[in-house]
Amino acid sequence: VEGEVARDNLIRRGTPGDKILITGQPRFDFIVDLEEETQRDLTLAALGLDSRQKTVLVASQYAGIYFRATDKRRMFKAIYSGLAEVKDIQVVVKLHPDDSDGSIERDLAEAAGLSRCEVVEGGNIVDYLLASDLVIVFFSTVGHEAILLGRPLIQIPAGSSEGAIIPFTEEGGALDGADLASLPNLVQAALFDARTREGLSRGRDAYVRRHVHALDGRSAERVAELVVRAADREKE
Questions:
Q1: More confident position, 227 or 166
Q2: What is the CA radius of gyration of the chain?
């Protein structure tokens, strides 16, 4: 499994602990070799945005079982209005793959007066994360990737069961954005306040240890070694 959280979940469901090995997640081995600044410049240039300006990425969420359409409109109206109060930022809204229309996001962003806001449908989410200085999510796994890539994260609760699904704030890897009225101050702190950013950095370290073991680029190697050992035992 990739980390302590997955191991603990399996043990709670009856899997013997001595049958579980933590390897990390091979999918994230690429992080150790990233050229972040180069990718940031390329991504923002393609969107017509300024790489010298602070960029906030909002990971949109489709309306469905966990997120009613009325709640989505209300929350995005508050989010965009809050972001419009923060000076000298630009916003990228990444649509969820199951919500490719984007009309709600575009209409509400325009109504809020967000002059520098791009709504994107396709593309690689990692590229958008590398181009961002701050990420805002509801319960999307984009929050998981944001923490692993070292991006300050604000999580906004969207439903009563969300906390049990993906609680990014649990280890301190994300700021709690439940109070939408305070979002401008929270964004300012996440972008510019040294103490807040240091706290998020410590929270990221704790989150990484619990969820993915290590970001050392060697997870695939550990999985391969495990497969070889298992194969050798079968031969015996």
A1: 227
A2: 19
